[in-house]
């Protein structure tokens, strides 16, 4: 399988950091090899590797192609900060399933922290693996304030996801392991559409992956 590398385009070259240089050495690239790179902003660069050092690499650009554009209808997901191994898995799957924005929110019952830098590295590696050229944005959401079509997952909801309105841009809100607090539930019920995924209690990453996967398939984002 051809490899995709991430770098910054400048002055007719793509510059790669230490992580990418290490990847190149692992797959036994050498100077003069033709490689493909992306800047994470939707562009593909066909390049000739000029230099490969321990902490950096550079390649001459011979072809530029815009592979992906910013979508007019976005799929966003608000997820709790959970255990890192589970959160990492969720990030990977969101990238693969075409999510455009990933927001981390510290709910009242959240018990963990997360580094945005670590999350962005996971986004990069997952995007390279599935050959995604436009990387999803990753950030913190400080307040549960929304507008537009927002869907909140709640086991006690009377409406099922299968019956929800999926028109336009959609934001999916997924609660923490301990569930929403009463204050959060009241706020979300007043500003979002509450839906259920069925009768089973799902882990937060399972609920998020199932929901965004269903929406992505319906909206042909995969």
Quick tags:
six-stranded parallel β-sheet, Ribosomal Protein L25, Chain P, 27% helix, six-stranded mixed β-sheet
Description:
Residues 16-61 form the Ribosomal RNA small subunit methyltransferase E PUA-like domain. It catalyses: uridine(1498) in 16S rRNA + S-adenosyl-L-methionine = N(3)-methyluridine(1498) in 16S rRNA + S-adenosyl-L-homocysteine + H(+). The protein is of the alpha/beta class. The protein has helices at residues 18-26, 84-96, 116-129, 182-191, 204-218; strands spanning 4-6, 8-10, 13-16, 34-38, 43-52, 57-66, 75-80, 101-105, 137-140, 149-153, 170-173, 193-195. It has five helices and twelve strands. 27% of the residues lie in helices and 28% in strands. The protein is elongated. The longest helix is centred in the last third of the chain and has 15 residues, at 204-218. β7, α2 and β8 (101-105) form a beta-alpha-beta unit. The protein folds into two domains: 4-66, Ribosomal Protein L25, Chain P (Beta Barrel); 75-219, SPOUT methyltransferase, trefoil knot domain (Alpha/beta knot, 3-Layer(aba) Sandwich), CATH 3.40.1280. Strands 1-4-5-6-3-2 form a six-stranded mixed beta sheet.
């Amino acid at each position: 399988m051809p490899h995709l590398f991430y770098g910054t385009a400048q002055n007719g070259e793509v510059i790669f950091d230490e992580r990418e240089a290490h990847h190149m050495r692992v797959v036994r690239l050498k100077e003069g090899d033709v490689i493909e790179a992306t800047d994470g902003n939707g562009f593909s660069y066909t390049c000739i590797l000029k230099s490969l050092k321990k902490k950096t690499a550079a390649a001459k650009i011979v072809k530029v192609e815009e592979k992906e554009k910013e979508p007019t209808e976005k799929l966003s997901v608000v997820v709790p900060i959970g255990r890192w191994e589970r959160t990492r898995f969720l990030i990977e799957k969101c990238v693969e399933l075409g999510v455009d924005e990933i927001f981390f929110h510290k709910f009242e019952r959240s018990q963990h922290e997360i580094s945005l830098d670590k999350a962005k590295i996971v986004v990069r590696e997952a995007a390279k693996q599935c050959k995604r050229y436009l990387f999803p944005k990753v950030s913190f959401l400080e307040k549960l304030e929304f507008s537009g079509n927002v869907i909140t997952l709640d086991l006690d909801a009377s409406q099922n996801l299968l019956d929800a309105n999926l028109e336009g841009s959609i934001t999916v809100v997924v609660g923490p392991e301990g569930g929403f607090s009463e204050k959060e539930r009241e706020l979300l019920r007043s500003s979002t559409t509450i839906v259920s995924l069925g009768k089973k209690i799902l882990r937060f990453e399972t609920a998020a992956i199932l929901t965004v996967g269903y929406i992505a398939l319906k909206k042909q984002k995969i």
